[in-house]
Amino acid sequence: MTNRLTDQTSPYLRQHADNPVDWWPWCDEALATARAEDKPVLLSVGYSACHWCHVMAHESFEDDSIAALMNAHFVNIKVDREERPDLDKIYQMAHQILTQRPGGWPLTVVIDPHTQTPFMAGTYFPATASLGMPGFADVLRQVADWYAGNSHKLGDQKQQLDKIFARLDPAPGQLPDRKALTRAGKELAASFDRKYGGFGSAPKFPHPGSLALAERLGRRGDERAARMASFSLEQMAAGGLFDHLGGGFFRYSVDDRWAIPHFEKMLYDNGPLLAACAQQGLTTTAHATADWVLREMAAPEGGFYSSLDADSDGHEGAFYVWSQAAAESALGDAYPLFGAAYGLDRPPNFEGRWHLQRADDDATLAEQFGLAVDTVAERLAAARQTLFEQRAARTRPDRDDKILTSWNALMIGGLFTAADALDRADCATAADDALAMIRQHLWCDGRLLAVHAGGRSHTSGFLDDYAFLLDALLTALRTRWHSPDLAWATDIADALLAHFADDANGGFYFTPDDHEPLLHRPRPFQDESTPAGNAVAARALLHLGWLIGEPRYLTAAERTLAAGATLMNDYPMAHSSLLLALDEYLDPPPVVILRGGDPDGVRTWRQAAARTNALATVYVIAADAADLPAGVADKPAEPDGPVAYVCRGTVCAPPARSVAELEARLG
After folding, report:
1. pLDDT for position 277
2. CA nearest to 191, candidates 166, 157, 167, 225
3. 334-380, pLDDT tens digit by residue?
4. End-to-end alpha-carbon separation of the chain, Å?
5. Angle formed by the axes of helices 463-479 and 405-422, nearest 10°
6. Which stretches make up the Spermatogenesis-associated protein 20-like TRX domain (predicted)?
7. β partners of residue 354
8. How far is 393 from 386, CA to CA, in rounded Å?
9. Between 405-422 and 267-280, two packed helices, what is the crossing angle to 10 degrees?
10. What element of type H or E holds 120?
11. Strand bridging mode 311-312 / 443-444
12. Ramachandran region of residue 398, left (φ > 0), alpha (ψ -120 to 50) or beta?
């Protein structure tokens, strides 16, 4: 028997289609059924690559007796948090309010069918009580009994929750000055792990937003912040957070040393980390990550899949870990060098086996084995390829084949950055293919859709879809100019202002103005697993406004920063991406529009700009480029060779007609 999840586009929902639980997807009919039967809604939120989601499914949702309890007392709704981030944001926030601790996945919430108000919240529950956690069956009985006798109290619960949501929604404040960025730098330094890199303690996440803020502060002259960024990225790339055979980063580390990850790979992490590695000069890691994306995550029609599971053959990490015997059998005489390089000559680090991470660098190994450093690098590369090919015969982790607009935009930006930094045309081609796929399947009547899966595109786009794609298009334009992309960027910005803006308080709501009514309409300013949509929107609108001279975009960005002012002052590290936008608002980076010239000449000018001012953004526009908006068209090409126009904010300098003049403008 199957339930109502059989025909859903989400692989996560389809994983539960043969549960004995009478699951519904989130829909009006499910909520209407709950109201008609006066049953509370049991809302279970997760995603397909989530290890503990699988555990709870096997322990509870596949158990006939627990399913019978769920079916008797609840209307049960399964939600893929990647398809419905709006619901996940609301009920994660509610979980934190109700339990006074952070949430996570699987998220388990029971809500009033009449008002969608939660009155019980938790995450993973074991089937029976263990390790200090109540059993799920007992929880179900207690909640059902409570609802039967107390549902009349839920009106008061909604009023209280509405008041808390209102208090959490920030009021606009005075725009911070650079002292906010100084405080952020001090807070980053206070949480920095000087031994292993990264910020905070285990479990340790890569936090690309914090890395980007530290790197930006470094470019502004804070050498300590620059070192925090580079050292953290180096440690992640050397540790077990990185897949040394197949490329790509795992989601987080369970320890302080970046040694043992939670083994799922998410598209949203790898886009920003690819860009960071390429820009910071970690070329081997960047190339391997780009190779992984193009090899394993690219859809034939363009675009990129969402994630790879942590589990295979029923065990977390089984695809990635090694025994000494298997590695030695595959490598033969190359084993001693490889084993010393990747820790196989040391005690096992994962359930009696070895998860690969760099134990010694090439220089140390060269001295130990009496080899040249280049020879060590070549032999290790060959050994990695051998083990990669051996590993390919194992049972692969499942892949979530949804194409999400927002996550694709993060990867598109990463690939264009890598294409520029690594001189890889294949990265730019794949990014362009993804843009074409989004435009064909997820852009309809001037609006974005959020999800494409199973040949279907659906779900009205969220703030992140618009903000991230706008930012990705600007990165694309800096990599290679394509006038239709600029026109598309302005269409996206206009839709963002028309359907998401909070006209009273500034900033943008997560859901559009014609979205279904939900318990709350959040305005997210805080970075989570992805950068805050308001932060990316503010920064992208600044760049687009400066490029084409559009005051509406600059005003919207300024009002967004004012809306998040208190949050940036009070909780700087949690708002790293918003502080990046503030940094550029307070001190606009130079924008260089380079017109005309042959490829070699253009390359020389671009290199001069990057060498003179690392914060400069450069747009190379051919002399015969058509369909340019007025703010770009008024910077024409000249017949005698390249000419550069340098602007800071809304102020432009006279044109530079030589490399020396360009350097003077940027100095």
Report:
1. 98
2. 225
3. 999 999 999 999 999 999 999 999 999 999 999 999 999 999 999 99
4. 70
5. 20
6. 2-162
7. 322
8. 12
9. 20
10. strand 118-122
11. unpaired
12. beta
pTM of this structure: 0.97
d(CA 117, CA 40): 10
Q: Which of 527, 528, 534 is nearest to 510 (CA)?
A: 534
CA geometry: angle at 451 spanning 447 and 456, to 5°? 95
Residue 596 three-state SS: coil
Task: Write out residues in the chain with pLDDT < 50, as ranges.
Answer: none
- pLDDT the model gives residue 1: 64
* Segments in 239-294 forming alpha helices (H): 267-280, 283-292
Which amino acid is it at 543? H
Which structure tokens are listed for 109?
A: 């919430």
Residue 235 contacts residue 258 (beta carbons within 8 Å):
yes
Structure tokens at 320: 């990635």
Q: Is the peptide bond before 106 cis (omega within 30 degrees of 0)?
A: yes
- CA distances 411 to 266, 303, 464, 535, Å, are 11, 9, 13, 18
Q: What is the pLDDT of residue 340?
A: 98
Residues 573 and 210 sit within 8 Å (Cβ to Cβ):
yes
d(CA 633, CA 623): 10
The CA distance from 528 to 217, in Å, is 21
| Secondary structure class of 317 (helix, strand, coil) | coil
Query: What amino acid is encoded at 87 in this protein?
Result: L
116-120, Cβ contacts within 8 angstroms, sequence gap of 24 or more: 116/31, 116/41, 116/518, 116/519, 117/154, 117/157, 117/158, 117/161, 117/519, 118/43, 118/91, 118/94, 118/161, 118/519, 119/40, 119/146, 119/147, 119/154, 119/157, 120/146
Asked if omega into 203 is within 30° of 0 (cis), the reply is yes
Distance between alpha carbon 318 and the CA centroid of its chain, in Å? Answer: 25
**Rounded distance, CA 297 to CA 644, Å?**
38
Radius of gyration of the chain (CA): 26
Q: How far apart are CA 429 and CA 434, in angstroms?
A: 9
Estimate the share of the chain in helix, then strand, then coil, as percent rounded to the nearest 5.
Answer: 50, 15, 35
User: 23: which strand partners?
Assistant: 76
Contact 290, 250 (CB under 8 A): no
The predicted pLDDT at position 543 comes to 98
C-alpha–C-alpha distance, residues 476 and 454, integer Å: 28
Q: Are 107 and 91 in contact (CB under 8 A)?
A: yes
Distance CA 394, CA 331 (A): 17
Residue 514 contacts by C-beta under 8 Å, 6 or more apart in sequence? Answer: 460, 499
What is the C-alpha separation between 269 and 652, in angstroms, rounded? 36
